[in-house]
Design a protein that fits this description.
The structure holds 2 protein chains of 2 kinds. Chain A is mostly helical. Chain A is 70% helix and 0% strand. Chain A has a domain of 159 residues: Up-down Bundle (Four Helix Bundle (Hemerythrin (Met), subunit A)), CATH 1.20.120. The radius of gyration of chain A is 23 Å and the shape is flat. The chains are: A mainly alpha, B mainly alpha. Chains A and B meet through helix 1, helix 3 and helix 7 of A and helix 1, helix 2, helix 3, helix 4 and helix 5 of B.
């Protein structure tokens, strides 16, 4: 018998030759990625619709005029300051989340717990800021279907769309932050109950981390298209 | 089986990927980019040093850079397998298509319905 292995009989070990996943990530993590991709499409649809509306209107509210207050400190004259604080809080909580994931890789329960708590506090601070901003705008007359009386004539068309889309999009994002905080709390309780210590892997922290970073990612876009452009 | 060997390598790469130092480095990139955006919004635009067209273009480019850092480093996508990286990023081409589609539509409405 000839022992030379023909080309076809050679055992192949590359990514797509079977026997293992070409993605090399755990099932739940892969599903989280797929979910986030679908969520990215949802948010894109919202923001792109916002862009299309803005393109189609003769006038549109000026963000530097709409967002110029710091609730509780100054009523006007500080464009972008408050949203800057909100952005900083969310980026900061993304950092504490990734630090929790990093601590999880080292199986350091104590560090995971503290970074998770920091992340949850960051999320709650962001939600608090958003509540302040919403109530401030509501007092000024913005809400679904309504806008301040200062808009007259043709300006009302853009102002109405702006008000509707602002509350819908930041509301949908805020809902994501809220669910993120809830899921973070659940995972924190699981960490405290030694669930991951026993299973030997903090992969679950990584999965909720992916969701949390995605929420931060969406905010980066919301921030640009609502507050800057 | 070589599977065990590969997983071991991946874990090594993972630890190499996101050290504490790297995390803070990315944080300062994100903070710096946001600071540049504020500089454009609060100084360059009001003083008329750059026009709104250039300003908006800069905002969008800077936003995409921030998005890259969040997805690549915080979400760890840069250190995943090629198949996952491409699978996720190439799918976003539909978003680009939708942007083009809807902005043309918005522009059409601007011309014909106002």
């Amino acid at each position: 018998m000839n022992t030379t292995v023909s080309k076809l009989d050679e055992i192949r070990t590359d990514a797509w030759s079977g026997g293992k996943s070409p993605f090399a990530v755990e099932y739940g993590k892969l599903m989280m990625w797929f979910f986030l991709l679908s969520d990215a499409f949802t948010f894109s649809a919202f923001l792109i619709y916002y862009g299309a509306q803005r393109f189609s209107k003769i006038s549109w509210p000026d963000p530097d005029v709409v967002f110029q207050s710091i609730p509780g400190i100054a009523d006007h004259g500080f464009p972008l300051v408050f949203v800057g604080i909100m952005t900083f809080i969310l980026i900061m909580s993304s950092v504490t989340m990734v630090l929790a994931v990093e601590a999880g890789h080292r199986n350091s329960k104590r560090e995971v717990v503290w970074w998770m708590i920091a992340t949850i506090i960051g999320g709650l601070m962001f939600l608090g800021c958003q509540a302040l901003e919403w109530s401030h705008l509501h007092h000024e007359g913005y809400w679904w279907g309504s806008f301040p009386a200062s808009y007259t004539g043709l300006d009302t068309v853009g102002a109405l769309q702006f008000a509707n889309l602002f509350f819908t999009i930041t509301g949908f994002h805020g809902f994501h932050v809220f669910t993120g905080v809830v899921i973070n709390i659940i995972i924190l309780l699981m960490v405290l109950a030694n669930v991951f210590q026993k299973s030997g892997s903090y992969l679950m922290v990584e999965k909720v981390g992916l969701y949390w970073h995605f929420v931060d990612l969406v905010w980066v876009f919301v921030f640009t298209f609502f507050y800057l452009v | 089986m070589s599977a065990e060997h590969t997983t071991h390598d991946e874990h090594a790469a993972e630890h190499e990927g996101m050290t504490k130092k790297k995390i803070w480095q990315v944080f300062f990139y994100l903070l710096g980019i946001t600071a540049v955006e504020f500089f454009i919004a609060l100084y360059l635009l009001p003083k008329g040093i750059v026009g709104h067209g250039i300003g908006n273009f800069a905002y969008i480019v800077l936003t995409l850079v921030k998005a890259f850092y969040i997805v690549a480093y915080f979400m760890h996508l840069k250190f995943e397998k090629f198949a996952l990286k491409t699978g996720i990023t190439v799918s976003l081409v539909f978003i680009i298509y939708f942007i083009v589609l809807m902005l043309i539509e918005g522009n059409y409405q601007f011309i014909h319905m106002n």
